[in-house]
Amino acid sequence: MNWQPNVLPLVFGLIAGLTVYIGAITLYRARKTLSTRGIGFLQALAGGILGYLALETGHAASEYIEELAKPATFVEFIVASVVTTIAFLATYLSLASVENNMKRGKTPSLGIYTGYVVALALGIHNVGEGFAIAASLLAGALASAILFTIGFAIHNATEGFAIVGPLLGEARQHVDHTVLLGLSMLAGLPTVLGSAVFYTGIGSELFLATLNTIATASIVYAMLHVNLSALGRLGGVSSPLFWTAITLGVVVAFSTESVALFALAG
């Protein structure tokens, strides 16, 4: 088949994003066989994955701003610092406002809302993955774009775990299949959006830093909910099982993301 150049980033972005659903549906189906502690362990595992992603997106945003911290780009440094700070605070205030409305009975259950926050945050984060795929294509490095796609696809399956983590708090309640699909697509499909935006030449570093800032705040907000629920099931902050699961979540997230890096290095 003769692919047109402007179609490739969309196809690769779609492949990388769809695997979120695989991870989500796998973990959600497993919940029925788990004890309360087992559910808490998987929630903490999801919390570890979210923690790693928060560090990753936060570093991506701060790295851009730190590079501007010199006399020659002082104005750009101030602008970027102000914009990202406002975005950071506005994200928290917005999420808190929605949750307060939810507590007054105006929105769905806390588990579904938190899952939505996770999915939205990951979707914002995954725009950057689309940028990376399209950048390789623009440079004529088709092999690199393919390897990025494979690596992101494997890594994004673990993001499905993070989405389902909040829903495990309602383990005895059925969450409609279309809800899981919708949350997975919200997280995964922005990879396609990212590849399309970059391919049309819109690649502002400040824009990407702001997206990463919003993603970081959203992920941290959701992570707090997931981990608090896990702590309640595992016996509190002193639980060795909780910290083991957190560490395992970080290891899983780091290991799957490293697939693309090792492949490219080879």
Plain-language structure description:
The protein is mostly helical and 266 residues long. It has one domain (10-265). It has nine helices and no strands. It has helices at residues 8-30, 36-67, 74-103, 110-138, 142-164, 177-188, 190-199, 205-234, 240-265. Helix 2 (36-67) runs antiparallel to helix 8 and helix 4 packs antiparallel against helix 8 (205-234). The protein is globular and about 55 Å long.
Write the layout of secondary structure elements.
Elements lengths: L7 H23 L5 H32 L6 H30 L6 H29 L3 H23 L12 H12 L1 H10 L5 H30 L5 H26 L1
Poorly predicted ranges? none
Q: What count of domains describes the coordinates? A: 1
Number of contiguous helices: 9
Element string (H = helix, E = strand): HHHHHHHHH
Envelope shape: globular
Major β-sheet profile: none
The averaged pLDDT comes out at 82
What is the C-alpha radius of gyration, as a whole number of Å?
A: 19 Å
Class computed from helices, strands and strand pairing? mainly alpha
Q: Compute the separation of the termini in Å.
A: 28 Å
Helix content: over 70%
Taken as a percent bin, the fraction of beta residues is under 5%
Number of strands: 0
Summarize the structure.
With 266 residues, the chain is an all-alpha fold. The protein contains nine helices and no strands.
List keywords for this structure.
266 residues, mainly alpha
